[in-house]
Amino acid sequence: QVQLVESGGGLVQAGGSLRLSCAASGRTFSRYAMAWFRQAPGKEREFVAAISWSGSSTRYADSVKGRFTIAIDNAKTTAYLQMNRLKPEDTAVYLCAVDLSGYYTSVQGEYDYWGQGTQVTVSS
Q: What CA–CA distances, in Å, run from 31 to 11, 28, 38, 63?
């Protein structure tokens, strides 16, 4: 019922920046949490960042803490992931997800809807 569309991925050199967007549509809701996960070839999907429905609380994986910033625009039901000082190990398909409960959990199973993903490739 809820469609999530990611955008902003691409190819960037190590040390560069990208800004990902995730737009939610197809259902009217206001109190939800949004999160970003990523999956590299041959690896398990891993948590990246999450933000509460209010936008006041965030959670980050240790691997991205201090480099990535998540934000949410509740009016537009859009989440953003600002990625700075990118490293080759950040290369992955990045997926956004929505948890209708509104809590910013890092647990994949708690999320209700997922996008198709956008490719981020960081060259050395």
A: 33, 10, 24, 28
The stretches in the chain having pLDDT less than 50 are: none
19's tokens: 């800004």
Give, in order, the Cα–Cα distances in Å from 50 to each of 11, 32, 41, 42, 109. 23, 11, 22, 23, 14
Beta bridge partners of 73: 78
Which residue matches tokens 């800004």? 19
Cα-trace Rg, the chain: 13
Beta strands in the chain (DSSP E): 3-7, 10-13, 18-25, 33-39, 46-51, 58-60, 68-73, 78-83, 92-99, 113-114, 118-123
pLDDT tens-digit map of 40-57 = 999 999 999 999 888 889
Stated length of the chain: 124
Q: What is the pLDDT of residues 88-97, one digit of tens each?
A: 999 999 999 9
